[in-house]
Structure formats: C-alpha cells, structure tokens
Amino acid sequence: MGSEELADNIFRIAQTDAKLKRDNVDNEYTANSVHFEVGKEVRNSIERLGGTMPEDLPVPDKSLKELEKENKKIEL
User: Which one of 3, 17, 46, 61 is most buried, by most CB atoms within 10 A?
Assistant: First the structure.
C-alpha cells in the first residue's frame, strides 16, 4: 500500500470513528450504514479532487501471503 492509499484509509477510518462516536451509534446495522456512507463520501472527495481512485492505484507484484511464504522458506 502506497502513501496515498494509506492516507485515504486513515482518513476514512478516522472520520468513521468520529461519526460513530458523535452520533452515539450503538448497533451493528447503523454502524455498517455509517461505514458505507463515510466511505462513499471519501470516494466522492477523491474523485472530485482528481485523485486516483483506490481501484486504479498500483498493486504490488506479490501478495502478502506470497511474501510470507517466501520468508518462511528463507528462515528454514
């Protein structure tokens, strides 16, 4: 994950957490709705500002699982 994607995720998480607390959300259904709505707003903001959408960001050559498997082989 690059710095742009990391920053987007941290912003989304922080805003969701703040909204859950501000609105005193106490049930799973409402929490899921809040997560969805905040995520949608963050995506809209990225798009409006001309940023790179998450699905268009570069992906690593190897998955975390592949890297862990390789690392395990090296340790043996």
Answer: 46
